[in-house]
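Thread: Newbie trying to understand structure tokens

Hi all, I'm a second-year student working on a class project, and my supervisor (Dr. K.) asked me to get a predicted structure for one chain before our next meeting. I've only ever worked with sequences, so writing a 3D structure as a token string is new to me. If someone could post the tokens and maybe explain what I'm looking at, I'd be very grateful. Here's the chain:
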Amino acid sequence: MDWGFPRWRAYGAEREAARVRMCDRDGCDKPGDRPAPKSPNSRERWYFCEAHAAEYNRNWNYFEGLTAEEAAKREAQERREANGFAEASHYGWAGPGDGSRSRDEMRALEVLELEADADFEAVRIAWRRLAKSNHPDVRPGDADAAQRFQAIQAAYDVLRAAEERRTWKGD
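---
Reply by user tm_fold:
Sure, no problem. This is what the structure looks like when written as tokens:
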């Protein structure tokens, strides 16, 4: 410690070596900065380097030691408790509308000339109507119609993928 004047370093700056916790994996000499539980429901932690933490997590079984009924009960309870996080998984609170649709979905609805609350059946009907009127076979040589047809097709693909994600999450 240098207590002489003038003081050349900031307060709190020391010459001593910083204490580094080493990886708990036998033979590893990297810093162990990734905590991992030693067992389920335990406050004790291992401290691994990134590579060994990845290896440990790959083999981790959260439901180890529980019967199938206990594991199902715990999973159901944790899904109920984390339900609020599932609603915010797509950051709907930052997007347009009521938060149930992303910004890309809102743009796709505009292309299909639909309101923000349109269901997928209305999307399908609008897509079919606009695709028929702007299809290159119906309007050959019209570059604007071909561009509109591509935009309509891309909008439908975005909304179809979003609908598939919503119905998949609901199962």
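A couple of things are worth pointing out once you decode it. The beta strands are 34-37, 45-48. Confidence is low (pLDDT under 50) at residues 92-96. Feel free to ask follow-ups in this thread.
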